[in-house]
Predict the 3D structure of the following.
Amino acid sequence: MKLRVAMIGCGLAAKFFHAPAYRRLDDVTEVVALSDLDESNMDLVAKVLGNSPKKYTSFSDMLTSEKLDMVDVMLPHNLYVKALPQVLDYCDNVLIEKPFATNLDDATRIVDMSKGKRVSVVHNYLYGKRYSDALKRISEQEIGTLQILRLEHLSRVLFNNSHSSFSLGWRMDRKIAGESTFNDHDYHLVYLSRALIGSEIVGVTAR
């Protein structure tokens, strides 16, 4: 029997990352419902999924109408603290995109409300081949003891030619994103460094 999954938020992350993953996992999961304020976004995500999930412009209506095993939430970062209480009332298994908060107070509230539930934050490079291979070589002492570590990430814009509704411009719009993060990928370097060098983080600086 397949796990019944619902997706809240059908933007860039849903179309390019989550929906293709669910399609590859279609032997164990089935996305049965989508929720987004933009119906054209839901149509595009459904096309990637290759099935016909029910579509809701209100995720509250979706939660009360569907029997779900897991809910995948991909909203602007400042909205998680408002949306998660409703989601957790209906489902104990929740997947959320990063970052799930834009300030420490909201992050603490989300951690507290998630206690006793199975809430996972996605987007973890540790499970990628290059890093799992590096961790294996370090653990087997193939490269000796690490004394210092330097990580660099080069990125390129992958979505210039995608549908206009998948623009990243919302990240700079305070009406939509509140205290949003313009670039939220550098946190990968923090947890990767922690894992690779086997030491707790003492401090993080940025400029």
